[in-house]
Amino acid sequence: MVNAGDMNGSGNLMDFLDEPFPDVGTYEDFHTIDWLREKSRDTDRHRKITSKSKESIWEFIKSLLDAWSGWVVMLLIGLLAGTLAGVIDLAVDWMTDLKEGVCLSAFWYSHEQCCWTSNETTFDDRDKCPQWQKWSELLVSQSEGASAYILNYFLYIMWALCFAFLAVSLVRVFAPYACGSGIPEIKTILSGFIIRGYLGKWTLLIKTVTLVLVVSSGLSLGKEGPLVHVACCCGNFFSSLFSKYSKNEGKRREVLSAAAAAGVSVAFGAPIGGVLFSLEEVSYYFPLKTLWRSFFAALVAAFTLRSINPFGNSRLVLFYVEYHTPWYMAELFPFILLGVFGGLWGTLFIRCNIAWCRRRKTTRLGKYPVLEVIVITAITAIIAYPNPYTRRSTSELISELFNDCGALESSQLCDYINDPNMTRPVDDIPDRPAGPGVYTAMWQLALALVFKIVITIFTFGMKIPSGLFIPSMAVGAMAGRMVGIGVEQLAYHHHDWIIFRNWCRPGADCVTPGLYAMVGAAACLGGVTRMTVSLVVIMFELTGGLEYIVPLMAAAVTSKWVADAFGKEGIYEAHIHLNGYPFLDVKDEFTHRTLATDVMRPRRGEAALSVLTQDSMTVEDVETLIKETDYNGFPVVVSKDSERLIGFAQRRELILAIKNARQRQDGVVSNSIVYFTEDPPELPPNSPHPLKLRRILNLSPFTVTDHTPMETVVDIFRKLGLRQCLVTRSGRLLGIITKKDVLRHMAQMANQDPESIMFN
């Protein structure tokens, strides 16, 4: 873009564009932003503020406010994201328990809170208190027996259906963009794509409300992914209050990157993991300044959540565990096996889920989203209720699977046969033979594992908010706990085997099954999302298991290797490609030996490239060209004969410029000459006023020669965030390559359908 001072008209000609007009520099929906232009505009703005700050005290104060506005936005995002996460956690806790019963002393109390306040709770029956009544006790005064079980079963299903129906109805009527995880779209938006309304106020409100409803309904989904979307909605709202961010799409995306970090921070209580997640998994452009601000936003969000204390344990997370036994080198083998399981599960899930989602998009199934949600909820509730491990919320299930068996645990998983002569400290209980409760729990966990694996495939992608982190972790935690109990019993009964002899003596506490659950959860989450560094950091922040980093790293790396052997795409990239978003992944490699001339438009046999000339077209000619084509912009050449390139004009800005000129500049009519040069062309005496549009002309469009390798062109598009690139030979225009052309070419080279790239 050229400075306004260089574009003065001559004589009585007015270059009305010296004054800014509404909507110039903005983008249409489902279009890609021009990163270079956004960066240039921000530099110009900053230069102007710096020069003005020396003129007066007031301007100096304004420059300070501008510099601090970024930190203020981060503070506001952290406060709102932390508050919303705390409210969601409390509401989910209450509504999940509402399916089973109600607190008589205060109906807004969850089961746990209700019995906290009771003076009649015993240690052995800490979950039972007279203030909390199941629906059967309340309605028919029976707590045991077939009729009570059937009534509770029926009401559990009814509440689940009610919550799910309300959620899908709210999403469908008020905010269609509130469905799904949100992370594939956030990744696409951060790469420079415009999806209007995706981060709007209605989406924020409806997603927050429906997230509580769907998690409470017992469906196999989590709230962690959608919380990233919620935090990004907060970021978009607060950035719109400051012109520095609202008028610059590139700067806005820096705020959204930091908001994503705050979202993970409150979802898992993992501020550092949130920053790394944003850097590794979500962000496209992540300068050092954004890293600091992400860190600050994640800190404020975590602090706010800690102040609310939704779990009542003075921790940021539900899964906090303390293990009393170190891990041993021999255990790396089962940890790596869990990594292999995680990679295989990730591959299976991605392939099956994408196949199901594609079927939903291409068949009549997609026309009945409400019915689909109701059917899946009914199936989930009917199968889940009889099994205690699927009946409870997934977060509570993971928490129980992670826990170490202490002397005070009353879980079935801790029903071991105790030695009556044991005189050990409470926190160092030796390995013991499994009791009947453990064997029952193993069968129930095996059934729950199969059920979770199958139902999650059909649940993720429905028209409701649905996160994938918690179901993936639950699958891994169940598999891990079963492997852990198996290794523990093997070590107890065969402590003389060579692999156990050196580190597991009789009467010692050797194996911690909860650690295997934690490693399995990390492996499965890594297999589905392909995260590595951020995953390990999130897991040790989530559980407090700092000394177990090596097992977590081994499982995460193994699961990624195994999953990558079957396909490089994680679940979020797979959904981006399924939806046809123009996302140029930094991780993709392009190794084919094609040239720019093979990809550019027009190809042989196609109509000539639509161009504007610098001083020989009328307003009517330009309007006709705009009307007859749907291109996002037009190269400007000296003349149709020479085709020497002058610059590039955006379609939207041409439309706005001509519309404003007709309203504000006298004498501009359909046969007025449009010129992009510094001085007006020589015209006959009675001709109408010409229209100067030099200011909207980009005089330095990015160009490559026709023999540039496509490997280089792809790198340029990826690293500079270009919308289009012009192809020239010796300064003469030959054609144009758009981001969509690059993506289609890459799809074609990978033997995929190039027409799957739907958006510009």
TrEMBL record:
The record's section on CDD domains has: CBS_pair_voltage-gated_CLC_euk_bac, ClC_3_like
The record's subcellular location field reads:
Endosome membrane; Membrane
Q: Which GO terms describe its cellular component?
A: early endosome; endosome membrane; Golgi apparatus; plasma membrane; synaptic vesicle
* Gene Ontology MF term list: antiporter activity; ATP binding; voltage-gated chloride channel activity
- Its chief place of residence is membrane
Presence of keyword DNA-binding: no
| UniProt xrefs under SUPFAM superfamilies | CBS-domain pair, Clc chloride channel
Q: Which residues form the CBS domain?
A: 600-664, 697-755
> Per the record's keyword annotation, is Transmembrane included, yes or no?
yes
Check the record and name the Pfam families matching this protein: CBS, Voltage_CLC
Keywords linked to the UniProt accession? Antiport, ATP-binding, CBS domain, Chloride, Endosome, Ion transport, Membrane, Nucleotide-binding, Repeat, Transmembrane, Transmembrane helix, Transport
Bilayer disposition of the protein: Multi-pass membrane protein
**Membrane-spanning regions, if any?**
68-92, 153-175, 195-215, 227-243, 255-279, 332-356, 368-385, 441-461, 468-487, 515-540
Q: Which PANTHER family match?
A: CHLORIDE CHANNEL PROTEIN (PTHR45711), H(+)_CL(-) EXCHANGE TRANSPORTER 4 (PTHR45711:SF2)
Spell out the family assignment given in the record's similarity comment: Belongs to the chloride channel (TC 2.A.49) family.
Q: What is this protein called?
A: Chloride channel protein
